[in-house]
Fold these 2 entries.
Entry 1:
Amino acid sequence: MEIIIQKNPAAAAEIAARIVARLLRKKPNAVLGLATGATPLLLYKMLAEMNLDWRRVATFNLDEYVGLPPEHPQSYHQFMWENFFRRVNVAKKNVHIPDGMARDVPKFCSQYEKEIRAAGGIDLQVLGIGGDGHVGFNEPASSLASRTRIKTLTRRTRRDNARFFSGEDEVPRHCITMGIGTIMEARQCLLLAFGHRKARAVAGAVEGPVTAMNPASILQMHPAVKVCLDEPAAARLKRARYYRWVYANKPDWQK
Ligand code: GLP
């Protein structure tokens, strides 16, 4: 894992944006895994302002609420189009977001997995992290080998996400999410976390034991993960000084 600690979210998001931009310039038909939530908003804003060509890029989103149609204001479909896709020249046919209205959920989920494989697999997966360590909507105790499937949201996640709805009761109880096994197959992962509310989950993910109780900790087993943090999100890392030193002293060829 490469732990990159920056003063504020803007500086951390800028590094993340440069990583994505470099990939797109090298591979114009890259396959990106994308996340929702407040965390990647800055990244999406920065990417939209860069001069990048998205025409041949394919995207796969991590998750969607079950029961929300794509036009629902709180659906992740709306979130992605509103906050990102409408601002770049991505082709609609290359955008994939789980269908929260799928009639046959298991069938839809295995189809989603097939589509990821058919696209050549995910080159770079953008991730946020829940306060309990969830990635996508893989809540604590999710199988570390899980694939795209239906999940039941925890009380905490529904409470955390209630700020986007008119109340906690409005937050759906179920979601479709890529599994942890699905995420682990991405060639590269880029996890972003900002704010002190994420500090405990980040410390567990980076320095704690690999455990299904902190699903993001499985990323320790992934060969290519970058973690972009602001200072408050890094506050509980025991080896923060070392990570800063590593980043500041990279060999020239690696910068
Ligand atoms: C949601 C999403 C996750 C996201 C997490 C954190 O549950 N499904 O993909 O990482 O919340 O959200 P935020 O970035 O708003 O803190």
Entry 2:
Amino acid sequence: MPGIMLNLPPVPLQLITLLESAGHAAYAVGGCVRDALLGQTPADWDLCTSARPEEVAAALRPHGITIHETGLQHGTVTAVIDHQPVEITTFRLDGGYTDHRRPDNVIFTDDLTADLSRRDFTVNAMAWGPCQGLADPFGGQADLQAGLLRCVGEPSRRFGEDALRILRCLRFASVLGFSIEESTSRALFDLKDSLAHVAAERIQIELTKLLCGQRARQTLLEYREVVFAVLPRLRPLSGFDQRTPWHCHDIWEHTCAAVEAAPPEPALRWAALLHDCGKPPCFFLRDGAGHFHGHAEVSETMAREILGALKCPKRMIERVAKLVRHHEMRLLEQSPAPAKLRRLLGAFGRETLLDLLELTRADVTAQAPEKLYRLENYQPLRTQIIALAAENPCVSREQLAVNGADLLPLGLRGPQLGQMLERLLEEVLEGRLPNERDALLQFLMLHA
Ligand code: ATP
Ligand code: MG
């Protein structure tokens, strides 16, 4: 029996068993083995096998298993059992890399170790089978225990083959909270400029995961030069002294702290990363103190450009842009009065308002310690917003208990009609009138 047991779910287990009974070798491999050894539940289980793609199909289809030829040229098929897809990839070696991004060709092999040797980091280069136990030819388990990311093989060659691995390395450092082994770290700095060969969308995907990691702050600080290789417009933040008592950090240090203080969710972490990127061009000194008037708008414009260039989904760009633009509302400075809160809810809606509160909290957390007392306002304000939203209060004209048709008998037309509805909304928002039909009609009689 193998020494190390992993809790393989039924579907991948059944696939391995079927491939083995057809005379092939088959294992769980890569990220799922890493995560399972860390005691985490893998999101998906990838399998590798000595079987060629057509042999995989021949072994599984007779058992009623659907096979999709998803990445045939790379030896990958997807098997589906009970609507659960599992990727199965034939053991392979990568041919030469002429473009720093994709192997020119792949060569199938029967040798598991050869397949593991093409993988990026030792902790990602382990395979596990229910009968064979753990295959770990590169010391992945020891590195996992030490919390170390180390290239399989010669780091500069491996990063030279595929520059995306540079960002994957930072991503895993941030997500797993691992350190980067010295020669791997050196190669990563040396080869950072080859990231120019990597497709924008793949850069975006890795950066997003990096930002959402548990150790985003330290990774962004320590590897800032690599980050600036893909986000050059953020470079001016580094070393930028804000010359204000509000901040004890330069803008980059403040930014990195804000990222980690934000909830680990892509839009919020991107917003934290970009919220002050417009500060350097807005900087001016008055009486020896730094000011940044208008920086939120400049940051918004830059955020749109940066995320657009990274081929971020449109919806995400809009969300981030909105958060960046309004990050300066000073929500935590004093608790907003009920009328103000209703206006905010009307202007932003519940989700965005709560996100803005989270961003403000992250921003304040990353400022000078003397300002931290403001965080006391966070929890009560959050509770207040949630309670208010649950009441579904009237915060827009459309929600008023009267509509345009009710105003026609009063002789109101066109713009006057709109103005009167706006006035009614004001009264309701300010709490001077309840949003009730009779009360609103009575007000109209008196004021129309
Ligand atoms: P996650 O799925 O959590 O993002 P992962 O390690 O599973 O992490 P995948 O992109 O799913 O990452 O890749 C699966 C495996 O394929 C990796 O664990 C690694 O062994 C290998 N791999 C992925 N990308 C590369 C690459 N660019 N270079 C070398 N090996 C890679
Ligand atoms: Mg994976």
